[in-house]
Amino acid sequence: MLTIRLNSPVPLGDQIVTGLRQLIAAEHLRPGDELPPVRQLAADLGINLNTVARAYRELEQDGLVSTGRGRGTRVTADRIPPLSRPEGGRAEVIDRLRAALAEAKLAGLTEEEVTSIVRQLMSGFWRSSPGVGKE
Amino acid sequence: MFWFDLLFPPAMILFPAVFALCVPKRGFSEADLKASRRLIRWLIGGTVGAILMWLAARMLFKPDVARLGWVLCFPLMTLAQQAIVKRNVDWSPPTARSGAAGSDVRSALLMDRAKRNPVRRGLWGVMWMIWSLAVAGVAMRPALMPIESRAEWTRWGIALGCLIVVSLPLMLFLPALVRASLREAEPMDPGGSAELARAYEQLRNFRAWVFFWMFGVFQPVLIGAAMIALAWLPDSVGSGAIAGLIGGGLGAAFGLVGAGFGIYAGIRRARINGLLRRLEQAHASTLSTAAR
């Protein structure tokens, strides 16, 4: 299921892209799975269909989905092809993690709390990761 | 016809106001309830005016003219819809709610609902078979029973034309109409309630089946039977009037059944909107408790 927040400072299209990427990374969406048509998803979320169309295009540029006439939009890969990102996107990911950790510290979270949250989130993406309950 | 003329038009005129007043009050702000009261005052005034117009038409003109007074229910129904949306939050689209009335979280299930069409492709063949039989039934008339008068030729032409001009376009658009109905907005609660998803699915399938049976089966059966009767009835005095009466009666019954299904689906949808609203409120209160 995809969830967005209307009052979030993050643009709606970016929320859709992030949400679908998370679902693909967590293997809730697998290669071959079909995404709902743009019009249907826009109606369900109560947002403009151009916003959804832009989000689908962005995912298509990343190589995660493909759209074909008459066969809808399908998930094509469970990872972004390395060729589309320098160093496989590693530097970008590290930058984002650093920014997120800085946000967490500024929000007053302790190191233990951040570790616990990260472990819990990781267990949703990597089956072998120790979840909070498994500690 | 006397009782029909006396009961049908006022019943249709009164229906929008009665229906609006039967919808329970559940406005999400006092301003909305106030707007609803104002609209209902207009609606009652309009209903009284329409009844007076119908009575005046009965007294001044022929019953045929007064009978048409029932069409006044359409503008009244438009007004009633506006009043109902303001009167009860569950009758407005959930995605139109904002602020205190609805959560800022929007969720959707990721599946193409048109691919879960309960009306399988093969079933459309039944519709085409019925229509083809009706067309054959009318088309064979000159070959099996010679047409002797110009009036019979005219009736035969009208029957064949009606099947092609009225029935055929409806059937051509029906699969697309069913697909569009399956893609009607189904906003989910943030928790992805299975009860809500099931309620949506039941209503979605019910609507698809109603469309199929009404426009894909009964429509070609009714129009086909009426047109076969029109083409084959002997050219005698009164036969046209009998065909008109039967056709009018069946058409009115078809319309009333369709309206009944529409109202029933509307009530079910309002119940689903109510369930979604309660789930969203529960989710919001859970979040606020966790924040404390």
What does this structure look like?
The complex is a heterodimer of chains A (135) and B (292). Chain A is mainly alpha-helical. Chain A folds into two domains: 12-75, Orthogonal Bundle (Arc Repressor Mutant, subunit A), CATH 1.10.10.10; 85-134, no CATH class. Chain A is 50% helix and 10% strand. Chain A has helices spanning 12-25, 38-45, 49-61, 90-106, 111-125; strands at 2-5, 34-35, 65-68, 72-75. In chain A, helix 1 (12-25) crosses helix 3 and helix 2 packs across helix 3. The longest helix of chain A is centred in the last third of the chain and has 17 residues, at 90-106. The mean pLDDT of chain B is 87. In chain B, 26% of the residues are buried. Chain B has two domains: 1-92; 114-292, no CATH class. The termini of chain B are far apart. Chain B is mainly α and 292 residues long. In chain B, helix 2 packs antiparallel against helix 4 and helix 8 (194-232) packs antiparallel against helix 9. Chain B has helices at residues 2-22, 30-60, 63-67, 73-87, 124-139, 141-144, 150-182, 194-232, 239-291, and one strand at 105-108. Strand 1 of chain A pairs antiparallel with strand 1 of chain B.
